[in-house]
Amino acid sequence: MIELDVLAWAVLACGALLAGFAKTALPGAGTLCVAIFAAVLPARESTGALLVLLIVGDLFAVWMYRHDVDWRTLRRLVPGVLAGMVVGAVFLGSSTDDVVRRVIGTILLALLGFALWQRRAKARSDAVASPSRAAGYGYGTLGGFTTMVANAGGPVMSLYLLSMRLPVKAFLGTTAYFFFAVNLAKLPFQIGLGLLDAQIFAISAALVPLVVVGAFAGRWLATRISQRFFEVAVLVLTGVGAANLLI
Q1: Is 69 left (phi over 0), alpha (psi -120 to 50) or beta?
Q2: 3-state SS string for 155-222
Q3: Main-chain dihedrals φ then ψ at residue 96, nearest 5 degrees
Q4: What pLDDT digit, counting tens, does each position of 172-214 carry?
Q5: Helix (H, G, I), strand (E, B) or coil at 119
Q6: Are 73 and 135 in contact, with CB atoms under 8 Å apart?
Q7: For residue 56, what pLDDT is reported?
Q8: Alpha-carbon distance values, 217 to 25, 26, 61, 158 (Å)
Q9: What Å distances lie between residue 66 and 22, 59, 172, 203, 217, CA to CA?
Q10: Which of 57, 120, 150, 234 could be joined to 23 by an S-S link, Cβ 3.0–4.6 Å?
Q11: What proportion of the chain, given as a percentage, has pLDDT over 90?
Q12: For 8-59, how does the pLDDT look when each residue is reduced to its tens digit (9 = 90+)?
């Protein structure tokens, strides 16, 4: 049995607020939620607890950004994501918490470095090339893998969508539909691995109202944020989340 004191519930409450906010405003903040939940709950079980809250946040994000979706980008990601989720399920079932954290953190830092190099190269050139189909498969596979093992697929997808130069609302709408589908697909794996049982579900259910509050707060901010600030914030949050997983 998992026993939580007042401080633990307060920390989880902050994580739930941030989960809703990340879904409708700053996707990169989702990695911080992973760290918060893993600090209070056993790391593997924390993925199941957070998954329930992420799905709730997905529902609100899909509704709020239902008219702002780049379907072509989503279709390009599907094959790689499915492959990555299968590999991630196998990895999660055979790895320790420390290995999971360090692998995800290393992947995120490598992708962040590549994204910064890519943005710098584009700033020096008038030509802005869209990512290739192969890049879509690669990011999709990494996104499926990281979201399965640590609910940390948000930064991977954020870096890919930043390279697509999508406007803020299109970015958020595409992310919302992508993760709603992916997170629903993850449920059977999480239950089968024993990471989402009745007790973990009860903890998540108690935190759902805070996800809703965070989602509406995020929507309010998204209508007022500039494109440049949004892109910089996503990159910074990705770096913070990756570093935290490695510490």
Answers
A1: beta
A2: HHHHHHHHHCCCCHHHHHHHHHHHHHHHHHHHHHHHHHCCCCCHHHHHHHHHHHHHHHHHHHHHHHHH
A3: -85, 165
A4: 899 889 889 888 988 888 888 788 888 999 999 999 999 999 9
A5: helix
A6: no
A7: 94
A8: 8, 11, 12, 20
A9: 17, 10, 10, 29, 18
A10: 57
A11: 21
A12: 999 999 999 999 998 888 876 777 787 788 888 887 788 889 999 999 999 9
Q: Which residues of 93-124 are buried (b: 16+ CB within 10 A; e: fewer)?
A: eeeeeeebbebbbebbbebbeebeeeeeeeee
> How many Cα atoms occupy the beta-carbon half-sphere of 132 within 13 Å?
3
- Report whether 50 contacts 34 (CB < 8 A): yes
Q: How many residues does the chain have?
A: 247
Dihedral (C-alpha) 213, 108, 130, 179: value to the nearest 10 degrees? -40
Measured CA to CA, the distance from residue 232 to residue 119 in angstroms comes to: 11
Residue 148 in tokens:
């399965």
215 Cβ neighbours under 8 A, 6+ residues apart:
20, 21, 23, 24, 57, 60, 61, 64
Q: Do residues 218 and 118 make contact, with C-beta atoms less than 8 angstroms apart?
A: no
| Alpha-carbon distance values, 90 to 99, 102, 154, 187, 236 (Å) | 14, 17, 20, 15, 30
